[in-house]
User: Fold this.
Amino acid sequence: MERPPQFADIAVVGAGAAGLMAAAQAGRAARARGASLKIVVVDGATTIGAKVLVAGGGRCNVTHDVVDETAFAGSTPPAIRKVLRRFPVEETVRFFAEQGVQLKREDTGKLFPTTDRARTVLDALLSATKDAGVAIVHPWRVEDVSRSASGFLLRGPAGEIAAARVILATGGRSLPKSGSDGHGFELARRLGHTTTSRILPGLVPLVLAERCFVLRLAGVTLETTISLHSATGKTLKVFQGSTLCTHFGISGPPVLDISRYWLNACLDDPGAHLCVDWLPELGERRLQEELGKRGGTPPGAVLRPRLPERLADALVAEAGIDKNASFDRLGREARRRLAKTVCAYRLPVAGDRGFTHAEVTAGGVPLSETRLETLESRVCPGLHLVGEILDVDGRIGGFNFQWAWASGFVAGIGVGAR
Assistant:
């Protein structure tokens, strides 16, 4: 372990996406005005950048081609928009291009490095920080941050660091094995900040009740629509995309996207529930009409051309219909029941897979407690907060990385230019 400096002008706590971007931008901004600053990034992990390396299945979904505040939840949209506009997608592409990383756009709008290797992205970030004159010290876990005569004092098992300014980039609670164990929230609270009353897993797979037929369809993947409804039946949120049936429940982009909304809704409304439309291109009414025209056709024969065979047969059984019976013998009620099972099946969600499997944290320090121009704390001058520690979480698809780049830029420039 490299011995950390006894004093730093700027100490960045956390060497994840936001922390490395903040450090690099702080170093660049300082040099641009001819200042020589001692900037250090400290991280408790033995191997830094773990979240970057596992993102996007090891390919790292760097950003999305279109990013605005509508893709995020948590703090107010105007506040999120103000930060995002300071460092839009074009600047992200330019930043990585300067580091020799070219990005490619896929049909989904996601941008990946052309190498399809997350290591390419992490190496670029590390190179940018090094070029900016930043020292990275790890493993050096920060157990406490307090105010001091010179600014702040960081303490940990490896010693102490005095810093004039501090950037908290500790992440939230998602993927704790990467180092994001929620300790950053405690550090922020000790320095006078609040955190939201709810800190929940976001972008997390959902667990279904053991009785659910979906558990017997592990490996089946198809386009679906997942919708969140209140106890009264009001539609609250809808996402569409590729859904994966698993041995524990369901996953895939629309499930991950809706998970944070479902978790929040259930705390306010015990009757809130999720429904899945296994045939979103058809719809319940049109399916009923088509079933009515099939006369002597068995139910399975109608569904199999449009759905995976295992799923088609399971839906017929779930609707309580004999798969060999013809529709002219089943009657209108059976057709209605099958159409509802296919197009508005109420998922018996038993829970979620927790922070261990969540890709992001929903909740954190409200943006209202920072100055949006620099993300400096309103309650603790000299402290800046970036990334997942803030109450901002986005959809799957590179949005959360874009928040990391943007917030890191805003804070880094804000600190380095002083």
Q: What stands out?
A: The first strand starts at residue 7 and ends at 13.
